[in-house]
Every structure is written in C-alpha cells, then in structure tokens.
Amino acid sequence: MIEKKTSLTESNKEIQYTHIEKGSKAICFMFSGAGYTYDKPLFYYSTMVILKNKIDVVHVHYSYGENERNLPINEFTKLMVEDVDSVVRDVLEKGDYSETIFLGKSIGTIPIIAKYGKDNNYSNSKVILLTPLLKIDMFYEGILESINETFLVIGKNDAHYVQNKITKLKEKPNLMIKKINNANHSLDVEPFNTSASIKSLSETMDILNNFSIY
After folding, report:
1. For residue 12, what pLDDT is reported?
2. Whole-prediction pTM value?
3. Which of 9, 81, 106, 177 could form a disulfide linkage to 33, CB 3.0–4.6 angstroms apart?
C-alpha cells in the first residue's frame, strides 16, 4: 500500500489531497465535513472498509473560512465543486481507474450531489451520503433526481432529518437509506449513549462494506 500527499494549484489556490493506493481499478473519493475530518470515526472506519475491499482511497483536504461559508449556497456549492473536481480530474488523469465511488459527510455531500450525481460521465459511480443537508431543497432535489446507486445514512435527531423528504426518497429504487434512532449530525446516539453509537457505527460499516464491493 502506498500513501502519497499531493498539492494542486487551481485558480491560484492550493488544494491538498492524500492518495492511498493498493493498485486497484476502483477508487473512492472522500469529502470531509466542515469539522468532521478523516481521523473521526465515520471516515476512519469507512477508509478501513474501502481499503479492505481492495479499493484505492483519496482524502480531499479543504477548509473554508467564515467569508466562504457565508456565501449564498449556490456560490459556495460552485466553490466546493471547483475545488473537489480539480482533485478528481487530477487523480483520474494520472491513474487507470474504471470504477469510482464518492463518499461525503455533511458539506462533503455537496459536490457529490451537485456535480457527480448530475454528470453522465459518473452515472455508474456509487454514492455514499453521510448526513446530507436535506433541509436545503436544492440538495434534496439533487438526490431525488440522481440515478446513481446510493447509500444514505442519517440520524433522526439530525437537524437535517426531514421526515416527508425521507419518505419521498425511500421510493427511489436506486437509493438505500439507513435511519439511526436518536442519532445527531455526527451519528452519535444521544444522550451520550456510547454502546448504541458504536453499534450503529458497526451496522453502518457492515452495509457500506457490502455496498462498496465490485
């Protein structure tokens, strides 16, 4: 296994990513949450599962300040898509991959929904959405319109859990949804229920394991 850290310069902006290679024909691009980084449980174990399935992994490292986070959602989405896609294109141009998976948490689901779920070049890609921002209609509608095979995980205590939207999404044959009772936006079961949090994490990883196998 080879782990390489790379820096790109795109539009005078430096974007870093970590590429973990196992010599696979499949690759999983991972996009972190605003404060939920790759060393946190969902990403740590997702990375472990993906690598176990002999799939290469890319962690995209981005950070946004208050000025960027306060942009209108359309402008922030455009910014994220440009940043992330520069990495995706760089990796795919340099590598020899025939299968792609996109995995994002919270704001990390934004470029997946806005770009890769609408691009016919990625219509066969698998998509994993951890706690997507369903309260924002443009992202909910993007998931609703997507034809990608998708696994969505959300906690029922998450502020972005919207029952009528979940009900509608469950009608999609290409979408599998795991709802976690009493779980918040980090998928931790409240209040401070360690054993239930670990159990739900384990169940989520089991599904992710089966979902990601090619």
Report:
1. 75
2. 0.96
3. 106
